[in-house]
Every structure is written in structure tokens, then in C-alpha cells.
Design a protein that fits this description.
4 copies of one chain form a homotetramer. With 287 residues, chain A is of the alpha+beta class. Chain A is 23% helix and 40% strand. The first copy, chain A, has 5 helices and 13 strands. The first copy, chain A, has an 8-stranded antiparallel beta sheet with strand order 2-3-4-7-8-9-10-13. The first copy, chain A, has a two-stranded antiparallel sheet with strand order 5-6. Chain A has a two-stranded antiparallel sheet with strand order 11-12. The first copy, chain A, is globular. The relative contact order of chain A is 0.11. At the A-D interface, β1, α1, α2, α5 and β10 of A face β1, α1, α2, α5 and β10 of D.
Chain lengths: 287, 287, 287, 287
């Protein structure tokens, strides 16, 4: 047995950069949370504390701000690629860069006034091994909270000795969608692609008469792949936010799926992947 | 010295009730978080554990669900009044009821499909001492996050020995508004009133050329009072979410208020009240 | 009707200051979160944006750091008094100062190495109107999570038409205590007082055979007052963290209070005050 | 191109089970958060909504409670193995089970009275493919917050065009440790192993004169492996919780590492693995 260093990475997480750009009196606003992870020739820093291969995380933060000034912030996928490629290109000791970006949406209230929309958060996860190396772009969203008040059934499941759940032909189906989708290339119309993928997720959620949350999940992924040729793989994580119909019989009332208790924990958690089977998997693109 | 019981109250907090109502194939959805506090003849339960005067918090929760079924959920102010009056009327030991409700907004995606909007949370705080007694309705909102990318100055302030801040003629002004407003009566067009008050807050925030966040706060309260005759007092709590222009000079770049670092803590916190001076204060309405 | 400015205050919230002091090779560590609110002659800043009366919140933050250097950090009550008195004394426009401090506890692991304890957070809330004026000190704690696995009953309560709860002679009683206590003067042995008050809360919680959480709350407050002569009023806020015995009968098992489901929401919320009736109330000390 | 279902799993997350056991008048308390994920022959449920292969997540929750009653809760690793093996053994459609458990520690205050300790959370992640199949146990902890007030340097790093950080010979080093360690087998003295691994992490953090957080991380992993023969791989995730020495020169004061500002975001994030190179990797054990 020898004790050795295994996989490792480091970087500056959660740099909160806000970029204002001016179009005459009209301002535009971008609001990002940028997290960087770098890896490469990092044995010495772990084994002896020799930092000669280490670009400080403080410099990474500075780079985010400087690039926001120099290049502006276009689509977050492009901003992530710009940063990731820079880090790998700039230092021989840095072999791989990972840039994760969350973008918060704002709605315009005036020429230079904005209200945070509070709708889902748009995300991007970019990897680059530099020119000629492996690169990948995964786009996505979190906190897209959706609910169908009918059109959801659950029955025909296994009944073991610990099963007390009654089958149902009508229930609320609610979830907070975290979705990520891998692009076929590192070049796409990111903004239009995002809006299309988001629309597909919502359409499939609303349009699927659901016999299980797994079925809904699969239809959501399938719809994205079918409509978005630039996307080759979709990963979905969907908590089943249980809404229990309250038993009102003790108070002499029926409850035909009108009054529900929205529970916090525990919750079902459904995770699944839908992909084009002609494309090689890329495990490194996702983490 | 005698050790005695002072003010006290108890109740069920954060009952999460979701109400679906059907208009043919079209469903309507309401999503509330209801917290109840009752007080009255509660000496015995504290001093000896005699529960004869205590309506269990579990029964209060049941009442929320049963009332949602029996009466439906109209405006949250009305639902709060209904509950508060019920508790005081139903038990002689309960003299005062306080009902606090938060409502989460959903946007329609289909006849029975919804997306949580994520915009601000609407609130109501109702007190009732029962028929003939004191009653009050305070409406409000939380988590209304707004930002002006220009039109904000800060200068002419005190400079003491610990002051290093430079005056500025142009900065980002950003805050997460918590606003509450007291109504003159317990009868109003709550929904229209809410939309009008919300619009006034946004208009005044966007429209005020600000020399200080206090000035903006006052204009927001003033605009609500001026436009909403049914409202007699507005209380605002507004954290100053600092956005610091990043010094890019070390990288040979200027930064004419284009790139900002959005800080978490510490933050300024501005709290203030704007009111009609002809109306008596009502401290009990707010807590 | 005239629209006027009502009560208001402003300040820097949540300045996170960590103070290291050296005793040879042995270091001592203090870790605080300090929030300041000032009020006084602030009409102009609200009405016209004239900041001549305003000490910037940035200067308040600087003062926290400078005072930590100059005076060190003794007990948080004293540090709060020092800051509050300074602000009122330093500027004629500032008439009232409120300083709220939370302290995070660390346990020693070595001469200069520490582990955050994670036990409750100690708090202080200080008001000062300056020399000769009103002053008050409220100490306290939050997040003291306690549980009795027996010795708690609940029965004899009101049964109305919405009551389905069964009376019980044995249940889990669990809560997260937020306690605050007002001191008779602004001079006390704060550290010893804190440890004594904390011990009293724990002793009374553990030692009370409880017929209701209200009874337990009262005994906790009473024990603090009886043992701590320097304290004249205790306010407690205690959520009833419900632990429901799981019905295992469907699986052919009994459950004699052995297996519980710990619920999140809704929860009971019990709030109450215990005080020395010979001492005038001081509503301004608490908010 | 064919759109197909890829990797997927489902289960009940965050079942909060509390178990009381009685030793005469003395009670013992265990407080867990249990999350289950199952996978296997789940094509049909995704493609058509046929639930014939699906054990409801509600039944999984019931199983947690029933097993807590039937078997008691020993070490969380054993409880996880018991559950994981049960699910795979009980249904032919379930091929793989993953059980993740977090345990909250309580300190005794009396025979049946407890205070939540608030120290770190102990974790276990168990996989089982059933008898004869792959099994793994990963133990760990989260929220172990540690700080060294000296004995940390950072210099000799890369200086690129975006580097403004000054090298330092003395700084605070603080982090919130998330550690997980893989066991060589599924049979160990889990409780003693946990205490030893925890002690090793603390000892190495306190005892390493650090030239970089990476060096400290490696020493922590190394110390666990060297002292705990039952462990073959350690993964650590350690945010660098920056504490910045405040510049007090504007106030005529020096600051010899006495007064610090504890920042929230951004933060460095250091992730690394230390392992016995003679043992095959087991990527499936960790996710």
C-alpha cells in the first residue's frame, strides 16, 4: 500500500458579478454567479505546499471581473468557454478548467430600472482542456417549480408487506425541475436554444397525462431532444413534491381533490437521463 | 418581587394549504402558508398545565383545511378575517386572534398546469378581538427585489474619524423590499388594492432620482398613501444590497460603472414608516 | 390628512468580525455578527435626500472593526454598550442607538486551532440614548434545540368540531429555544450570567414533567428569574417540533413510543413572557 | 439517432426518523435523515408509465420506520446496509439500492432529556447490488467547521496579469470540512472508526503548518489513511472561508492579524482525493 494523491481540483466559487451595459439612456443588466475549478500539475502543492503551479483563486476572481469588462457578458455558455479556455491557455500547469455559471433573470421596469423575476435560474457548465483538447457545454436550469392539478395517476405498483399507499386515478403532480442538457458542440445559438429547451420542458410537463413521475420525466427529456437538434443528452432531477388531499370526513365534508396539504419532507426523488444513443457518453461533462 | 406571567400567545404556524377549484376543465390554484396565534385566558395552562382553555394547535390546522373547503379561499385578507373571527367567536377563552398568511403566486401554463412565478410573496396580517372589538388588516409583500443601474447618488454625509467612504454621484441602488401597509378598515377590494400598492412601490423606486435609500423609501411609502385612499400607514424594510464597482485599474482598464461585485454581508438596513397623521397609530396591528 | 414620516432607523447589519488575541503562543478567538441601527434627526434625509445628519453605514462598519482593535472584544453586552454609546455621543443628530450582536462559539483544539461548537448562538441587544438617557441590555440565545423523550403529556384540552387530536399521556417534547432576558441594569457579570441563565433553561426543560409546552415555557422563564437576580424579564419563543409516533400496526408491529417521524411544518409556536411584576415594562428594549 | 432512456434511479428522500430505546429509566436517542434510491428494470415505467416494477417511495418510507422498530438503529452504516440489501432482495425488478443517511448528534442532559450538539453531521452512503453483488460503504461527515488563527502561509504562487494578491506568511485558515471515506469492506467497527477518522481530520488540520489549503487537505486525508487501516480512500471538499485582515491604517491603528472580516462569497473551493493506490477505484460507491 502506498498513500497517493488522487483526483483533485480547486478554484474560486461563487463570484457574484453584475454587468451593466448602456445603450444610450437604456441600460442592460446581467447578473451571474461564477464558479471556477482548475486542475493539472498539482502534485507539489498537495505534497509539499509548493505553490509554483497554483494560480490563486483570487486571480481567478479578478479574471471574471476583468473579462466582464473587456469582453462583456454574452450568453453564459460563451462567457464560460472564454474563461475556461483562458485558464488552460494561460498557464502550462493548468490542464483542465471547469466553469459553472448561474444567471438570475431581471425584468425591465424602466430604462435603467429592473425587478428580479424570480423565475427559474439558468445554468451553464463548461469544461475545457484547451485548444485541441476535450471541451463540453452543458446548459440547464434549476428551480423551475411546476404543478398539474389533475391529469396524474399512480397505480399498478408493487405491493409489498410495507405498502399502505392506495392507488389513485387523480392526484396533484408537482415538482421543482433541475434539468441539464449536453450540447453536441461548443457552438450554438445558446439563448434561443435555452428558450426552446425550457419551453419543451414546460410543454411536456403540462401535456403529459401522467401515470408516474418517471413517465413525465422521460417525456420531458424526449421532447427536448426531439425539438432541439443541438442537444444530445438531458439529465433531470425531479423531487416529487407531495400534495396530500386532506381527509375532511371527520368534519362532515368531502374533498374531491380540492384541499391539499403541501408536505416538505420526505419527498420522492426521481432522477433520469434521456439521450441520443448514437452519441458517446461524456461523464466528465457533467461534474 | 413576584414572578408573573406576561404577554403570551400560541398557535399553529406554517400550515401549507393548496386549494384547487374547478371552472369546468379550467382549474384555479391558490397556495398559502397560514400561521395562527391565539391569546386570552391562558394563565392556567402556563401555571399548572391545565389545558381546559386551550384549543389545540392541531385543531387550528384542521380549521384552515376545513375552511378552505367550506368557504373557498378568496383574498387572503378575507380568509384571514374569517379564521381570526372564528377562533375568537368559537371559544370564550380565546380573546384575540392573529392570522398571518403568505401567498405564493403561480402562472398558468394550461387549463390545469401552472408554473410558480417566483415573483414577490404577497402577505396579510389580520388581528381580531371578535365582534365589536378591535380588528385590523395589514397587507404587504416580501422579496420584491429591485435594482436601478443609475440615478442614485450618495454624498454630503457626516465624515467622522472612521469614515473612509467616498461620495458618489452615480451608483447602483438595489434592495429586497419588505413592505406592509395598514388599511383604514377591514373591508376593501383587496386584490385591486394589492396590485395598486405594488405598482406604486415599483413606480416610486424606478422614478425617484435618489440621493439616499431613505429618500427612496419615503417616496415609495408616500406614493402608496397618495394613490391608495384605503391605506393609512406603510412600513418598509429595505436592505441596501451593495454593488461595489470593481477597481480594474490594476489590469489597465477603467470601470465606468459597468462591472460590479454584488456583496452579501454586511449590508445597510433602512427601515421607516410613512403614515397619514390624522389616523391613530395601531401598534397591535403589526406584530 | 397629511402624509408624514413616522418611526425610522438605519444602520449597517451583519458585520462579521473575528478577533484574535494572543496570550503567548495561545490564541483566543471571538466570532461575532454585529448589526447596528441608529435614529434621530433624520427627517431631511427622508424628505429631500439631504445626508447632512447621516453617518454612513460604511463608517459604522469601520467603527466595529476599529473598536475590536482598540478595545478588544469583552462580553458582547459590553461591546454593544461601547458601540451604542459611541454613536450617540459622537454625532448630535444621532439620538438613539441599537446594537444587536450574535456570537458563535468555538472549542479549542490546540494553542491556535479551533472547532466551531455548533451549540446555541449567544445574543445581545443593547439600546442607548446616550449619557443620562434610557439604556437597556437584553441578553439571550437562539437555536438551543432540546428534546425530552418522555415526561410530556397533553390532554384535557378543548374539543371543538375541528378537533381530531387524541389526548396523550406520553409524547416527545422537542423545541428550538429562542430566549431573551432583560437585565435590571447595564452592569453585570455578563458571562457568568449567561451561563447561569442557559443552565436554568436546560434544567427547567429537563426537569419539568410537562402537561403542555406552555407550562414548560413558564417554568423555564421562572427558573431563570428565580436564580438570576440580575434579570427582570424573560421572553421565550418555542416552536413545538412535532414528533409523531408512527403507526406500525399495518406491519404487525406495536410502537410504544419508540419510532417517530420528525415533522417540519406545520408546527405549534408558543411565545410567552415571564417577569418580575415590580419592574416597569420596557417595550423599547426588545425591538 | 434514437432517443433512449439512460441511467436513472428513484426513491424516497429525507425520511426523518427518530428512534427512542429504553434502558430502564434511561433513554437513548437516535436522529436520522434517510434517503433511498433504487434502480433496476425501470424501462417500462419511464416509457409507458407501467408501474409493475415500481416499489412506491411511500413503501420505502414505511420500511425505514418498520426496520427502526424491528431491528433498532445500530450504526448508520449497518442500518443502511440492512435497508439496501432488503430492497434488492425483496423485489426482482430492483437491482441496485443506494441508502444515504445523515445522523444528528444529541448530548445527554438527563435520563430522558437531550440537547442537540450542533457539532458536525455524521454521514453514510451505502450501495448494494444484493447477495454476491457489488457492495460499498462510504462514511463521512459534513459541517465540521475549523479555524487556525496562525500557522498558515500562502506565497510562491503564479502571478499573472490579473494577480493582485500579496503573498502572506501569516493568515487565518478556516474551512467547513465535508469528508467522505470509503471502507475496504462492508464490515467494520463503524462507531470507533468514525471517531478515529474524525480525530485524524482534526489533528491534521490543527497540526499542519500550512503553506496552502491543498497541503492541509492532503495531510488530513493522509492521516486518516495512515491511522485507519479499514479505510482505503478519502475524499475531501473544503471551502476556503476567507478571513481578511482589516486595514485599520486610516484610523491610525496597526492590525497585526488581530481583527478580521469573515467573508461569505466568493470563496476558494479545494477538492481532493487521497487513496491507497493498491485498491481499485470504485466510482459507483460515491454518487
Amino acid at each position: 500500500m502506498a498513500i497517493v494523491l488522487g483526483p483533485n481540483r480547486y478554484g474560486k466559487a461563487e463570484t457574484r458579478v453584475v454587468r451593466v451595459s448602456r445603450d444610450g439612456a437604456t441600460h442592460h443588466l446581467r447578473d451571474l454567479n461564477v464558479s471556477i475549478s482548475l486542475s493539472g500539475d498539482m502534485d507539489a502543492v498537495h505534497l509539499t505546499g509548493d505553490n509554483a503551479a497554483v494560480l490563486p483563486t483570487d486571480s481567478q476572481k479578478n479574471t471574471v471581473f476583468a473579462f466582464a469588462r473587456k469582453h462583456g457578458i454574452g450568453e453564459i455558455e460563451d462567457f464560460g468557454l472564454l474563461l475556461a479556455r483562458h485558464f488552460v491557455a494561460s498557464q502550462p500547469t493548468i490542464r483542465h478548467a471547469r466553469v459553472e455559471i448561474a444567471e438570475y433573470a431581471w425584468e425591465r421596469q424602466g430604462p435603467h430600472s429592473f425587478v428580479r423575476s424570480g423565475r427559474e435560474v439558468r445554468t451553464a457548465l463548461v469544461h475545457s482542456d484547451g485548444p485541441g483538447g476535450r471541451e463540453s457545454v452543458v446548459s440547464g436550469l434549476t428551480d423551475l417549480v411546476v404543478l398539474n392539478s389533475t391529469g396524474s395517476e399512480f397505480h399498478g405498483f408493487i405491493r409489498d408487506e410495507y405498502t399502505t399507499l392506495e392507488p389513485t386515478r387523480d392526484r396533484i403532480l408537482a415538482t421543482s425541475v433541475t434539468a441539464r442538457w449536453r450540447h453536441r458542440s461548443t457552438d450554438a445559438a445558446w439563448g434561443r436554444s435555452y428558450e426552446r429547451a425550457r419551453r419543451c420542458l414546460l410543454e411536456a410537463f403540462a401535456g403529459t397525462h401522467s401515470l408516474s413521475l418517471q413517465q413525465t420525466l422521460y417525456q420531458m427529456g424526449r421532447h427536448v431532444l426531439a425539438e432541439c437538434g443541438e442537444i444530445c443528452e438531458v439529465r433531470l432531477s425531479m423531487p416529487n413534491r407531495h400534495h396530500f388531499a386532506v381527509d375532511l370526513a371527520p368534519f362532515g365534508m368531502d374533498n374531491d381533490n380540492e384541499v391539499f396539504f403541501a408536505a416538505d419532507r420526505p419527498y420522492g426523488l426521481i432522477e433520469g437521463t434521456v439521450l441520443d444513443d448514437a452519441v458517446p457518453t461524456a461523464p466528465g461533462a457533467w461534474s
